[in-house]
Amino acid sequence: MSGYTSKYVYHSLFLFSFLTSFKASAQDPSYVHHICPNTTTFSRNSTFSTNLRTLLYSLSSHNACYSTGFQNATAGQAPDRVTGLFLCRGDVSPEVCRSCVTFAVNDTLTWCPNQREVTLYYDQCSLRFSNRNILSTLSTDGELVLWNPQNVTSNQEDQFRDLVLSTMNQAATEAARSSRKFSTVKANWTALRSFYGLVQCTPDLTRQDCLSCLRHIINRLHTDKIGGRSLVQSCSTRYELYAFYNESAVGTRRPQLNPAPPPRQLNSAPPPPPISIPSPRPDKDDITTAGSLQFEFKAIEAATDKFSICNKLGQGGFGAVYKGTFPNGVQVAVKRLSKTSGQGEREFENELVVVAKLQHRNLVRLLGFCLEGEEKILVYEFVPNKSLDYFLFDSRMQNQLDWTRRYKIIGGIARGILYLHQDSRLTIIHRDLKAGNILLDADMNPKVADFGMARIFGVDQTEAKTRRVVGTYGYMSPEYAMYGQFSMKSDVYSFGVLVLEIISGLKNSSLYEMDGSDGNLVTYTWRLWINGSPLELVDPSFQDNYQTNEITRCIHIALLCVQEDAEDRPTMSAIVQMLTTSSIALAAPRPPGLLFRRRHELVGRAGPSKHTSALCSIDDASITSLAPR
């Protein structure tokens, strides 16, 4: 709630005897505070009212994800769109979470009957909705500060303040690193009394935003009191000298009192052991050699809560992906092959063999697999911020990716593909690079994913041909889409398309009426380039927050990647150098590859292409390149 800066302060001798008590599951949730700024209202029969009822029903229905303690949702279209979320305290059970959220939904009619923006704080949960986009957005508005009126003895104030700040900041770091964005901590205060702390953010925040939020509210705590609490819309923190949360439900940790390396992220795992996969063409024997990576089906089933709909992350062409949490806290992404997928087995085996060999910070990491009966499952590291397309092509989410972050993402994708092409032990062609296959970690670093379509090349091989063209239309190079001919340069073409999408926030597959003719993002960019106005491509959400030279250079590099002739396109090693060294001169780009037009149609606009033949038939002859790797 932008501009809402009032500070709410309330204290009572008995306040903390009931606030945040995990024993309250058998009674109504403990009300803490509500925020209704009364700046915008709606009428009972309005479209917004209908959308709000739909949203609240979604958040409080039996299908809501109470087991994870967090859910967000959107209903309707602008200007009557409403977004909302609930967050349950990390130690409460799904039953308590459900009860609290249902109670909060009904309570909105009492506290804020016709407000477009509402935040309700309860002991066990919080509920929030707005006519603005509040999803994956840091907000430190709606501040609430509470404290126990009992003071720390004067001769212990400095010592207690140090304990509060150091312990709570350690917990904040731990919470920001975890996918749940939640942490509890316990420390010794005196021989007879322990210190208990709890911090939590909404899990849709990035690691950086969560840590920033928690540090902000920790600094608002009254450290001269024996108990304190601070809440804002995106995070909360509390400490007491008694166990105010359910220790057995969260496994409270003790803070590190001596300097030590940072704790390992919960969503990471030790790298898998080496796997012997002798043949570049996968078959069943290759999978059985990876036995050290094999998981039992019952373990995966338990980790995903029997593949609960609440844990479903997405649906791919060959099956669904679920979030899983193992007993040791490690969180994973579980790709479960659909039993009805006719071509899925080949892709499953291929992905296992390919990805098991790969270790790079910009590639999603395979942790293991499961083959039991009809079940075929791949277990990956969990990447919390979904895929690039989730942010890139949603007008509500685009502003989460400013140009600085997008430029970083472009560089990370380039390094990941370079590793596949040149720096790994194998030469791997991905064949399905697209925004949906770029995952974003807690710090919005990109990780190339989905290797079901990938192909491994031999030592001296630079090109191959297939009658089975796979991939996503709009990202395919002309020679691959029309001839089935693929190489490292076909991945380069896909990368170029991806860069244009990242710069513009537009899908290449979308058609536009530009200059009186149909086209896609690639042809539109080319027309802007030859007309001397490439900056018209830039996503308006950047406003003026970008460097003109930097973004123009990225457009130039992208156009070099999507040139029609594969030989004209740069290698990924050259692209990484172009992105990191601004002094490297760039060649003038030739016309881009077009699937349904003859090359001579572009003559006169940008000069003749190297060749004049049309891409109109599929030649059965194989093509071998003499260029070295």
Q: How would you describe the overall organization of this protein?
A:
- By secondary structure, this protein is an alpha+beta fold.
- It folds into 4 domains: 27-130, Gnk2 domain, C-X8-C-X2-C motif (Killer Toxin P4, Chain A, 2-Layer Sandwich); 144-250, Gnk2 domain, C-X8-C-X2-C motif (Killer Toxin P4, Chain A), CATH 3.30.430; 284-381, Phosphorylase Kinase, domain 1; 388-602, Transferase(Phosphotransferase) domain 1 (Transferase(Phosphotransferase), domain 1, Orthogonal Bundle), CATH 1.10.510.
- Helices cover 28% and strands 19% of the residues.
- The protein contains 16 helices and 24 strands.
- The longest helix has 21 residues, at 157-177.
- The termini are far apart.
Main sheet summary? 6 strands, mixed
CATH class of the largest domain: Mainly Alpha
The total count of strands amounts to: 24
CATH architecture of the largest domain: Orthogonal Bundle
Strand content: 15-25%
CATH topology of the largest domain: Transferase(Phosphotransferase), domain 1
Number of helices: 16
Give me the CATH superfamily of the largest domain: Transferase(Phosphotransferase) domain 1
Radius of gyration: 27 Å
Structural class: alpha+beta
Helix content: 25-40%
Shape descriptor reads globular
Number of domains: 4
Q: How many angstroms does the end-to-end distance come to?
A: 55 Å
Low-confidence stretches: 1-26, 257-282, 284-292, 513-517, 595-629
Strand line-up of the largest beta sheet: 1-7-10-11-9-8
> Could you report the average pLDDT, rounded to the nearest whole number?
79
